[in-house]
Amino acid sequence: MRVATALLLFALWLALSATLSPGHLVLGALLSGLIAWVNPVMKPQRRLSLLAALAYQPWLLGRILKSGLHVSRLILTPSLPIAPRLVRQRTGLSSDGELVALGNSITLTPGTVSIDVCPGEVLVHVIDEASADDLVSGRLERRIRGVFNTPEGPR
Amino acid sequence: MNWLTVALIVLGLFFLVVGSIGMLRLPDVFTRSHALSLTDSLGGLFVLGGLAVHHGFSASFFKILLVLGLVYLLNPVVAHATIRAAYRAGLRPGKGEQDDL
């Protein structure tokens, strides 16, 4: 796994650096190896549905755009009508991949940011009640279940 | 520069500006992180999208897509790490935290 990670990082390095000078290659190889070595190995996600994962991206982008406009309106309103609070949300998601997808999606979406993510529960800061909707209604979790083919129901 | 490039970049700049205003107006580190996700998720998306359209199908186009993908994978991780650190350091939302800057 670590070797695969290092190779992937090195490929990325080659694609972005666009030069084949020896110095660049050595630096890229060293960095790829170091990063793959110091980071924990994530278990491969065997039940990942590629189709659902592809369909998830435009859906998330749509939600990000919608929340972005909502948060923009909050910020630009002179009275600053925010109602920030913490939301402790139970979740049936527990594998590494699912939690990364959940935590990243929450943080990417304006109006919600994940403070702590652990199997079975996430702690999220929301800027107002409307922003919490996708999370509290379980819509986001259902989507991620679809991507990872996770069976329904609490763990 | 065609009109689509200009439109996308202007849209991106709108979110970057609103995000910056939010950074100034919002009261604490937690609410300010929401302004950050505005600039990261939408400002970055539209500015990079505009640049990608400007370059057309070329090596630069795919590089920009790659950067966009990395932004979407890495920025939330950094934002999350910052906010979690603030939370663990004892900061809590809605307490009117002192701003020394």
Automatic annotation (TrEMBL), chain B:
Protein name: PH adaptation potassium efflux system protein G, sodium-potassium/hydrogen antiporter subunit G
This protein's UniProt keywords: Membrane, Transmembrane, Transmembrane helix
Residue ranges crossing the lipid bilayer per the database entry: 6-24, 61-83
InterPro entries registered for this protein in UniProt: PhaG_MnhG_YufB (IPR005133)
Superkingdom of the organism of origin: Bacteria
Keyword Transmembrane: yes
GO MF entries: sodium:proton antiporter activity
Pfam families linked: PhaG_MnhG_YufB
Source organism of this protein record: Pseudohaliea rubra DSM 19751
PANTHER family linked: ANTIPORTER SUBUNIT MNHG2-RELATED
